[in-house]
Amino acid sequence: MPPIEASLPLPVGSGDTEGIQAKPSYENALQLSDSVKVGMPQGVVEAMFGPPDKAGYKEYGRAAGSPWRALVWEWVFQDATPPRALSIVFQQDGSGSWRVNHGDWPE
Fold it and tell me: Are 103 and 33 in contact (CB under 8 A)?
């Protein structure tokens, strides 16, 4: 069976780029990340941080016996020393929309 990442196209927005910002600086992104909330729609996150530098699918919850597919977006900030990355994990809701499950600044 092919990995999930290879078998599914990544969801894209409606093609309407109005309101989507360029990627903010690391300092601005650090402040903006405090306003990211669980349940926030994918489009709102993209409007805040711009398109992600990396995107892919990952499976969560396998060890707990209830696996679910996540969409993981990552932005890499080269203007920080050392460079830092913001990772935001989305989960599909009942209508098929991607919403924030959690996010962090991994070390």
Answer: yes
Q: How do the pLDDT tens digits run along the chain, 107 residues long?
A: 344 444 445 555 544 445 567 899 999 999 999 999 999 999 999 999 999 999 999 999 999 999 999 999 999 999 999 999 999 999 999 999 999 999 999 98
DSSP for 57-103? EEEE-TTTT--EEEEEEEEEETTSSS-EEEEEEEEE-TTS-EEEEEE
What's the predicted TM-score (pTM) here?
0.80
Helix (H) or strand (E) holding 48, with range, is helix 42-49
Q: Which domains does the chain have, with CATH numbers?
A: 20-104 (3.30.1450)
Peptide bond into 82 cis (omega under 30): yes
